[in-house]
Every structure is written in structure tokens, then in C-alpha cells.
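[Solved] Which block belongs to which protein?

Original post:
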Amino acid sequence: MELRHLRYFVALAEERHFGRAAERLHIVQPALSMQIRDLENELGTALLIRTSRRVEVTEAGAIFYEEALRVLAQAERAVTVGQRIGRGEIGLIRVGYSENAALAGIVTQALREFRRQYPDAQMELSEVSPFAQAAALLEDQIDVGFTPPFHQNLPEGLTRIPLSDSQWMIGLSSEHPLAAESELGGRDLRNQSFVVCAEPYADEAQAAVLRRLIGQEPKIAIRTPNWITVLTLASAGYGMALVPSSLSSVPIEGVAYRPIRAFKERSHLNLVVRDNEYRPVAIAFISVVRSLIEGKKLFR
């Protein structure tokens, strides 16, 4: 038994006439008669009573008609769901993100636009440190990752999509004497202590930037596991913080943000994805992010 047998029977049960049913189905009447006869033979019972003028539905036929309608409706729903899955409209997208990517607003912008375009897709969010995201992608734990480019060379099979770049700034206590300056230079910072984010290898990356900025080994006073704590400690005077300008909107009381004079280096955020991504919902998410980039709608 195939779905076409059910469609043929439903049309005949509703039209009560072989000629009209065949016309509705766009087939010839003998073919319809043969298909209905095959269906009855398979079921082992008569579904119709044929008269010279019209067709009547038997008691078994009436029950079978209701079941056939349900099966056809379910099949149509299955086709619709399959098509929507293929377009990425439904399904689960697993998003990994680093803390600074979330604080910068990049993740929020991407999620908001994706939800607007694909409201029925499901979202699973996980905070994953930058140096763990590559493994999470390769081990199929996440589908995409928002992260700074601490990996200079991504493992084979992964691709980096640049999202935004911003200048480096110094976050310091608003009561610090240097907070009175409109901008700071490398020389101003040589004798200062710093608080850095101690995500795996992130403190080393920040120390490397500071080393290039001040021309000597920086004095790291405190290593702490997240950016909010970094800024909180900076506001309390435990040290200065090197932060991307995209984080300067984070409302931590007592923190002053100052640009760095004549320092060309930039802080970058990327979306990291698999080269061979095949999940339609993940492909749709990546497409949304790319459209935001092309429309310059992401924070720069």
C-alpha cells in the first residue's frame, strides 16, 4: 500500500463517482478502478459499493476513510517538517561563546537576528573558553563558536570568519591619577600593575599585547577567571585592565576607560565554524551572521 492508494480512495469516497474522482486526480478512470481494486484486495474487504450511477462507501470504507485522512495529513506534515529542516527553519543550533564576545554584544546581535528570521529553531548556548572552542567544534559539542583569535593557527577542518575589531583601551579606577588623562601611552603604563583574565592562555595573550605596548615585561598583579571580575578589581584599584573598546560599555561602577595613544594593534572577534558543516540550521545561522557582517550591522 502506498500513499497514492489512500489519496485515490479519499478522492473517490468524497466524489462518490469514478469519473469525477479520476478527473480530480488527473488520471484515467480505468487506472483509478484498478488501484481501488488492488487496495481492497490488500485489505481483504470491500470499501465501496458500486452502482450504475454512483459509488457508496461501506462501513469499513467509512472507517478507513477517516484513518486515511489522518495518515495523509501526517504525511503532509512530515513533508513540511522535512522541507523546513532542509531550509534550516527548525532544528537545534549549539552556540559556544567566550565571555568577552558576549559582553561585546556580538552574540546578542547574532542571536536576535537569527531568532527574527528563524523563530522556530532551537538554541543551546554554552560559555566555552576560546582555547576550548576548537576541540568542542571538532568533537561535535558545539556548531559555531564566538571567540577572539587566540588560536593563531586553527586546527585543520575549522574556518575563522572575522566579525569585528576594536581598539585596545585601558580600564582603570576612576580615582587613579592617570584617569585625569584623556588618553594613555605606553610610557605611562610601564610602572603600572595589571589585572588580566586567566581563561586558559588568555592571560598569556594579554601579557603579549602589553609587552608590545609598554616595551617590557608587564607586572601582572592578579589573574582572575572572567572579565567582569577583571573590571571590578580595576575599579577597586588593584591594577589596570587591558580591554577591547567593545567592553567599554560594560557598566562597572568606578571604572574609567581611556584610549591608548599611537597603538595600532586591534582586538578581534571571530566566528569559528567547521569547514564541512552540513546541518541546515547551522548553515542558516552562519548565513545570518554573514549577512550582518555584509550589512555592517555588527559592532565594529
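(Second protein starts here: sequence line, then its C-alpha cells.)
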Amino acid sequence: MSRLFIVSIVSMISLVALSGSLQAKPELREVAHVRNGIITVGIAYEISQKCGSISPRYIRGLNFLEGLKGHARNLGYTNREIDDYINDSNEKNRLEALGRSMMADMGIVEGEEATYCAVGRAEIEAGSGIGRLLR
């Protein structure tokens, strides 16, 4: 093969890779895996705080959150972008509202410990994302 041909191929590959990295990323709040993961952790934490017989699995929860950060980094988000997303008070309020709506759909009634415990036990039994963060 000629040297010019090899240089052309390498240049084309570089341009394709560069064009992919220049494409606009969606806002981190639009990345479903990250958003839903944060809500899952929030629901598990809320259940563990409102039901005296259920405890959080702290290490598993921290590992899960680190996994979400790693996923975001793999998608090209910087640590600063991730931190800005995590610390955004409007986004915290939005995620909390989504989580509370989901908890209500699951049968949790604010202020009624028995409902938190029943849902928590059901999630643990089902081995769901929420249940794996509880014991």
C-alpha cells in the first residue's frame, strides 16, 4: 500500500472520531440511565428513613452512584458537568417530585410508615433496583 493511502485512511478515521466528539451532548438531566438511577437511590433512601425495620445498604448505594458517575463520564461528561448537575437545586426539586410521584404510584402514603415498609419489603423481595439498595 502506498504511504499516501495509509495517511488518507488514518486522516479519515481521525475526522470521523473527531466529528463524533464534536456532536452536542444532551443535557445530563436527559440521560435516562443517570436520571432514573438517581431517583432509584432517592426512593431507597426515603424508604430506609421512613421505615424503622428497613436499612439502607450504604456501600452498595455509594457504588451504585459511582457507577452512574462513571456512566456519565463514559458518555463524555466532565466531572464539572456532573457536579453542576448534582448540585443544581432546580434539578434536585424536579427529581424529588418525580420520585415522590413514583412512590405514590407504588403505594407509599406520606406519613404512613406501614406503606413505606410494605413497599420496601416488596422491592427487596422482587430484587429491584430499589430493593437491592435496602435490607
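Accepted answer:
You had them paired correctly. Confirming on the second one: The mean pLDDT is 89.
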